[in-house]
From TrEMBL:
Residues 1-35 form the signal peptide. The keyword Repeat applies. PANTHER family: OS06G0587000 PROTEIN, POLYGALACTURONASE INHIBITOR 1. Coiled coil: none annotated. Residues 42-89 form the Leucine-rich repeat-containing N-terminal plant-type domain. This is Leucine-rich repeat-containing N-terminal plant-type domain-containing protein. InterPro entries: Leu-rich_rpt, LRR_dom_sf, LRR_N_plant-typ, PGIP. Belongs to the polygalacturonase-inhibiting protein family.
Length: 292
């Protein structure tokens, strides 16, 4: 609701198309803001918030994202589809479907909650930006079409967003296939992703996650890659992971401190080609000290 109210203010101030400004007073009297703005206008508003949030106040004159010209976009419909790092779908109203800012020298900032207004987004990559800090917006976890999320090698911090207490498991990252937050500063428990049956690449390594590996991680039946290394995890490696029959690579080593060994059922993972359990306290298969 706050995002919609802010968007209404942008529309009233005339940052979007003139025809929208003429109709806005009448439309606002009859319907909600989200219905007033077209999907493309909502996308433009979300991109404007993303730009202002990614550039710190001290770097607003930076040349980064210089071609994200919001003034020109307000008078040239779909102009935002020409922004660097932006991909639109011409068959779906020129909606923004992908953002890739890898290698863009962002001088600082955070990810805004308004990014969730990009409800056609299927891929978001903001990686390798050491100045990107702050928490990860919880709104990302409810984006309906988001399939790929790569926020690796940044300085994002705090707990990983959890689903609301009354939310169904299937509503938490409902379409996600790839999640990579390697080398950030996340802490607290691992995210509850057991209901994410579409995930095939999960990289949570290089953070400060604590606690044990959830048993429900064994329910991610499509998982091919699992990276949990270089955290502060403890407890036993759950035998449920041996149900991941498509798993090819699993990384558990370094800085974690597990108890005992891994389940003998891991030997039945025919697709497994790499099991890294270096320097994490594991003693072998079944805790007997036998190295796999």
């Amino acid at each position: 609701m706050q995002a919609e109210q802010a968007m209404a203010q942008v529309l009233v101030q005339g940052d979007l198309r003139p025809c929208t400004r003429l109709l806005l007073p009448l439309l606002l009297a009859a319907t909600a803001v989200s219905a007033v703005a077209s999907p493309a206008e909502r996308d433009l508003y979300a991109l404007s918030k993303l730009k202002s949030s990614l550039l710190s106040r001290s770097a607003r004159n930076s040349t980064s994202l210089a071609d994200w010209d919001m003034i020109k976009s307000s008078s040239h419909y779909y102009y935002h589809c020409n922004f660097s790092g932006i991909t639109c779908d011409a068959t779906n109203g020129h909606r923004v479907v992908a953002i890739n800012l890898t290698g863009v020298p962002l001088p600082g900032g955070v990810l805004p909650a308004e990014i969730s207004l990009l409800d056609a987004l299927s891929s978001l990559t903001v990686a390798g930006c050491s100045s990107l800090s702050g928490p990860m917006p919880a709104s990302l976890s409810s984006m309906p079409l988001l399939r790929r999320l790569n926020l690796s090698v940044n300085n994002l911090a705090g707990p990983f967003p959890s689903p609301p207490p009354d939310a169904a498991a299937a509503a938490y990252f409902p379409s996600l296939e790839v999640l990579d937050v390697y080398n950030n500063n996340f802490l607290g428990p691992l995210p509850p992703l057991g209901g994410s049956r579409l995930l095939h690449h999960l990289h949570l390594g290089g953070n400060y996650f604590t606690g044990s590996i959830p048993e429900a991680y064994g329910d991610m039946e499509g998982l091919v890659y699992l990276g949990l290394q270089a955290n502060s995890l403890s407890g036993h490696v759950p035998p449920s992971l041996s149900r991941l029959r498509r798993l090819r690579e699993i990384y558990l080593g370094y800085y974690n401190s597990f108890d005992g060994g891994i389940s003998p059922e891991f030997c039945e993972l025919d697709a497994l080609v790499l099991l890294d359990m270096s320097s994490c306290g594991l003693t072998g298969i079944g805790g007997g000290g036998r190295t796999p």
